[in-house]
């Protein structure tokens, strides 16, 4: 029995559903009625698999991190999503959604982005499929992720800076939904994470599930068993985490560890630790955990990581936390930065700040020598290099 999977109405336990304005009802219902039919068709599977192999570069390696393993006293494998085309796991989802949009006759694509990786991945597949692309990005993120902004423009996308609210991911999502309301007929909204109204959380999780599908095969080859003792991933909206755990959710042999952005500290007022701080509410079309004040107004999140700077969480992860299926750890900015430099110095891999939060969970765990741990490096650190350079200038004698 699939205890933690989505039901026919788009709920994971009491989280999920589709809470949308009337003008979008037909669009969302059309997607609900068609996404599984398209995804399960032979034509979709053939092109999706071919593009993942020949365009994205899958399967991504499962790398045994010897020195990191020695540091933490277990066997740590890194799922190298950072080696995908465009530098993150996001391309798995955008490849799939552009094919679904194409099959449904859509000609215009919109997206939101925080760190810029989803925006770049969306712009990439729109260039590939010759579709118009508009990406909404908070002005704060435009400034701190300007390299990805230039990549999107080079790929032919129109990047629209958002100046409302905190000018980050939440606000970019708000504007993308407003756009969708104004262009419901010809537009497909490629949501970048396991958030939004049903069927998006399930659709994105299914498209990202290639990660755990590969982990099973790769572990069988390297460890002579197809499951780990621990799966660790960072979680903002939750797409790389959903992909990492998808085929293991109901396997109780596997412990799931989710690392969310603690910011300056969970109790500091500057945090994006939604599962720790959130209460049930509705955000961007789904019932989930939301950071909100006593009047139900959404609180502004904070994280050094643009991709984790979101006041909600995917309903799948809200349910896993509520059911005690996942252990959720808050990793603050300093812990994530330390973890990023640790991986770089020990293994020669510069991770994205988002992935650094997953790495920051390692010191908080207690492993046995025989434990097999798989940690997803969701993206590479090119986009965050200025943050890392600033850290090095502030602490020239970084010691690990």
UniProtKB/TrEMBL annotation:
Name the enzyme group at the top EC level. Answer: lyase
Q: What cofactor is this protein dependent on?
A: pyridoxal 5'-phosphate
For this UniProt record, give its keywords in alphabetical order, as a comma-separated list. Answer: Amino-acid biosynthesis, Aromatic amino acid biosynthesis, Lyase, Pyridoxal phosphate, Tryptophan biosynthesis
User: Is Lyase set as a keyword in this record?
Assistant: yes
GO MF terms held by the record: tryptophan synthase activity
Q: Domain Tryptophan synthase beta chain-like PALP: where? A: 57-379
The record's listing under Gene3D superfamilies reads:
3.40.50.1100
Question: Per its database record, what is this protein's job?
Answer: The beta subunit is responsible for the synthesis of L-tryptophan from indole and L-serine.
What's the protein here called? Tryptophan synthase beta chain
Q: Which gene encodes it?
A: trpB
């Amino acid at each position: 029995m699939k205890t933690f999977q989505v039901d026919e109405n788009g709920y994971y336990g009491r989280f999920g559903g589709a809470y949308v304005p009337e003008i979008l009802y037909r669009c969302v219902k059309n997607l609900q009625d068609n996404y599984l039919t398209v995804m399960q068709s032979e034509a979709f599977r053939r092109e999706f698999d071919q593009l993942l192999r020949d365009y994205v570069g899958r399967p991504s390696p499962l790398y045994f991190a010897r020195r990191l393993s020695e540091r933490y006293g277990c066997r740590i494998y890194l799922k190298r999503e950072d080696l995908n085309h465009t530098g993150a796991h996001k391309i798995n989802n955008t490849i799939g959604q552009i094919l679904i949009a194409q099959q449904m006759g859509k000609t215009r694509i919109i997206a939101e982005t925080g760190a810029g990786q989803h925006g770049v991945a969306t712009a990439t597949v729109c260039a590939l499929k010759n579709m118009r692309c508009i990406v909404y990005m908070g002005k704060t993120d435009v400034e701190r992720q300007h390299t990805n902004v230039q990549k999107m423009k080079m790929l032919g996308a129109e990047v629209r800076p958002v100046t409302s609210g905190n000018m980050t991911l939440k606000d970019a999502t708000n504007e993308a939904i407003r756009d969708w309301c104004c262009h419901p007929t010809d537009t497909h909204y490629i949501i970048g994470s396991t958030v939004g109204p049903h069927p998006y959380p399930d659709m994105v999780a299914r498209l990202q599930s290639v990660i755990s599908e590969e982990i099973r095969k790769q572990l069988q080859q390297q460890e002579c068993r197809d499951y780990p003792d621990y799966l660790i991933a960072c979680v903002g909206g939750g797409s790389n985490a959903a992909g990492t755990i998808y085929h293991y959710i109901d396997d109780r042999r596997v412990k799931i560890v989710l690392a969310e952005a603690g910011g300056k500290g969970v109790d500091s007022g500057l945090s994006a630790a939604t599962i720790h701080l959130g209460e049930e509410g509705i955000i961007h079309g789904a019932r989930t955990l939301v950071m909100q004040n006593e009047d139900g107004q959404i609180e502004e999140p904070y994280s050094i990581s643009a991709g984790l700077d979101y006041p909600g969480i995917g309903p799948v992860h809200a349910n896993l936390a509520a059911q005690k299926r996942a252990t959720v750890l808050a990793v603050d900015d300093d812990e994530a930065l330390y973890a990023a430099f640790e991986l770089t110095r020990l293994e020669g891999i510069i991770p994205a700040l988002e992935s650094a939060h997953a790495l920051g969970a390692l010191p908080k765990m207690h492993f046995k020598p025989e434990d097999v741990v798989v940690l997803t490096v969701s993206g590479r650190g090119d986009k965050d290099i200025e943050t890392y350079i600033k850290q090095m200038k502030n602490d020239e004698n970084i010691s690990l």
